[in-house]
Amino acid sequence: MKNRYLILFSALFIASTAISRAQSVDSILGMGQEILQKERIFSVKGIGMAFPIGGVSDVLRPRFSSSIGLQILAKNRKHFLYPSLDYLNYKYDQINLESDYDYKTRNANATFYMGSIAYGYMKNIKKFRIFGSAGVGAGILNEPRSRIDVQAGEVNYSNKSSLSGIIKLNTGLDYGARRFKFFAELSYMQNTRKIQGHNLQTFAVNVGTKTNLFRLARSIDGIRKK
């Protein structure tokens, strides 16, 4: 008899947990749908260049950078959250010989992936909007390394990967209609990790577009009805 009560209690607990989770998911979807319907979420896509600042410029030469993210407006539409992912690509010249390697790597390619979330404020001037934001995040730094196998006549390349925290400051200007805008952006990024003994600081210039995601509200409505 006790076993039956235990099974019944377990089944009720699992069912209630499943229902509460379903309600939580539905409430989250409902909140997202409401924000989308009010046209407060924009997808952000940009491309440009990120210039190294200071001594690290002896190691890195800018090639190109790109960014994707979301601009999520508050109810008064002046404040916003800005989660983003940046991709930075550089020509890389190693200046310090490391004990694990016999040669320096030069004329190679370095790639950095940076994720951040920022809080910002914007000022509307007719169809123009001036914005600024500040945030924190983390990223992966991939530095190239090489080994030479003289007997085999081969050069073997690999990446030295490391994690870095970041502080990011943005400012810029966008122009356009309510649902589609062009933007130009300047951003400063300070990393906690050093490159070849130098502080990693970058100053990026990006241009791109912001597109409102209001149409996704219909898709979410379809999911909630299933």
TrEMBL record:
Annotated signal peptide: 1-22
Entry keyword set: Signal
Signal recorded as keyword: yes
Domain of life: Bacteria
Protein name: Outer membrane protein with beta-barrel domain
